[in-house]
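Schema walk-through. Below, the input block comes first and the output block second. Nothing else is stored per chain. Lengths vary across the set, and this one has 176 residues.
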Amino acid sequence: MDIERLAKSVRNIPDFPIPGIQFKDVTTLFKSSEILRELVDGISEMYKDKGITKVVGIESRGFILGPLVADRLNAGFVPIRKPGKLPAATFEESYEKEYGLDVIQIHQDAINKDDTVLLHDDLLATGGTMVAAVNLMKKFNPRKIYVNFLIELEELNGRALFDPEVEVTSIIKFDI
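--- output ---
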């Protein structure tokens, strides 16, 4: 992957969604078929020998690459959603993010103990959303949990919140 080219393709939106936040807009990565293919190929290559059986995407930007990577890895795709979006029984986890509180949910029958899970989302900032997602995964006691992000904001040190047994990777790293 040409990380420099990918980084230059990310649009920065100041003061969104609230003043002081420098939002990293990944939609600019997806509008180019060439860059989209490069991302899917690159992420799939990173995990091709890990035995991934389920790719879990976090609402909503995790729903873009998650299914594409799952297809390449011959794995299933599972969504983690905000409350009220999933029709069957769910587990839920609440967490703090940089600008408020939130809750995420997953179907109680989405993962099993024989699964090896790749959690995917667009951005690692303070880490709250993905730590909550990892906590949801632990309720299922899968074989292994991997975590992948398109972007990591290194100065926020969100990576430090993850247990050492969870392998965390990111494609593009930015200082804020």
